[in-house]
Amino acid sequence: MSFDLNSNFFEIAFNVSEHTEAMLAYWDKNLICRYANKATADWFGITPDQMINKSHLSDILGTLFDVQLPYINGALAGKIQVFDQVIHLYTGKAKNVRVTYHPDYINGDVKGFYAHMADISPLNSKPVDGELRVEELPEFLTQNDQLLENVAKTLNENLFTGFPSISALSKKHFVSESKLKRDFKQSFGRTIFSYYRYLQMEIADRYIREKRCNKNQMAVMLNFSNPSNFSACYHKYLEEKSAIQETEHPQQENINHYKTLIEEAPITIAMFNSQMQFIAVSKSWITEYNLQNTNFINKSVYEILPSTKKKCEKLHLHCLKGNIYQCDGLLLRKNNGIRCWLKWNIYPWFTPSGEVGGLCVHTEDISKIKLIEKENERAVRLLKKADTISKIGTWTRDMLTHTTQWDKVIQNIFELPDHFIPNMKAVWKFVKEGKNRIIVKKALRNSLKYGNPFDIEVEVITVGGNLKRIRIIGYPELQNNKCKKLSGILFDITPV
């Protein structure tokens, strides 16, 4: 039997999408529906004809829109988004669903995304042996957490059928009434009945805003015996919702404050949200990473700076848990292809509610410092090879740890025992009093304050009481215009 492969393929694909229980839709970059299958009527009580070319995604998701917004932005930024969520159908029944947002690329640009919602856990189904139950929670949750989640699911299932009594809930979930009431309020911040009413009001608010029904009809659907009681509950819900929105407004102001500070900062710093998408950067960051002609705001750092994904993604995830990370040197490749050494400081920023809102990343190019260190190491190796011939010793003074190191040649010049621990205060006593100490003091001051190298000759008196003339050469190493280390050589020039 012969047939047209293309026409049959698309016909089969269309029939499958129209007869699947999963919800399928396509949203353009303006979040307007361009396609929806028949399952949308079962999920959200709205037909494809009512959605296509008419509905905004926020109209369909309702209160879930703000929750899903980071994933929506992620899809529009070109990243596949997969996440699990409990949603309420238009009938009031709760479903545990897996949502997939797959970006649609046309000529390299994201024009929209495909949405797929699948029921991954019929609430009353029995698991196959060896299969994970939907009711099972992540291993870091306790058995009591699981119990309370199951109670919440029971309440979700009964939003349109009436509140199950505390007694019925305790019997169904095998827990005493007193423990159930105490633990539920501690975990959810509400009594069981208050939590149930709040869920009902969420659905009522959505139906009323979408003009699917009026308040009286909603009161009947939710089994209120008196419409005035429903109106009182709904009014209380709206007040609470308004209060929550008022707390969210300062949060946005807080983010805007962060953005302003970062954009005007004279250092190389960037601000990211919890999805590691750019929120704001300093001018120095744009210059440092060659982003002048790049539209990077709201895009992932891994997309804009691909080399960071392999080396930094785990660090970012660690810091998104509230941790701070500092790195003294990481070799990365910039957008212009140049490899450089970067010093990193990564720290989380927090919302007014205390949650991690994202990360601030400060970097500093220390390639020149690394080059100086490498040259110093090379010079030290060469000097150590020649020390036995020329009596040249090497020394280092770390200004951060206040420690001093020198080699055996210097130890011998000062006639010190092998067990002597290098100590600048002790060495200062070896320098002959008078103009010699003035010369040393001036050289050190100019080096530490202005970063000037020095080359001086002074007289010293050794441990054995012998007068010697030595030459000291020092090179400062600067970081943020401050001297963090002095290194150099010292050799005996006493006339024979």
Basic shape? elongated
CATH superfamily placement of the largest domain: PAS domain
Distance between the termini: 110 Å
Q: If strands are numbered along the chain, what order do they take across the biggest sheet?
A: 2-1-5-4-3
As a percent range, the share of strand residues is 25-35%
Q: Tell me the total number of β-strands.
A: 15
Residue ranges: pLDDT <50 for 5 or more in a row?
1-16, 122-141
| CATH class descriptor of the largest domain | Alpha Beta
Helical content (DSSP H or I, runs of 4+)? 40-55%
Summary tags:
496 residues; alpha+beta; Beta-Lactamase; Arc Repressor Mutant, subunit A; five-stranded antiparallel sheet; 18 helices; 15 strands; 43% helix; disordered N terminus; DNA-binding transcription factor activity; PAS_4; HTH_AraC; PAS-like_dom_sf
Can you describe what's shown?
One of its GO terms (molecular function) is sequence-specific DNA binding. With 496 residues, the protein is of the alpha+beta class. It folds into four domains: 17-121, PAS domain (Beta-Lactamase, 2-Layer Sandwich), CATH 3.30.450.20; 143-243, Homeodomain-like (Arc Repressor Mutant, subunit A, Orthogonal Bundle); 265-365, PAS domain (Beta-Lactamase), CATH 3.30.450; 370-492, 2-Layer Sandwich (Beta-Lactamase). The chain contains 18 helices and 15 strands. The strands form three sheets. It has a five-stranded antiparallel sheet with strand order 2-1-5-4-3. The longest helix is centred in the middle third of the chain and has 37 residues, at 227-263.
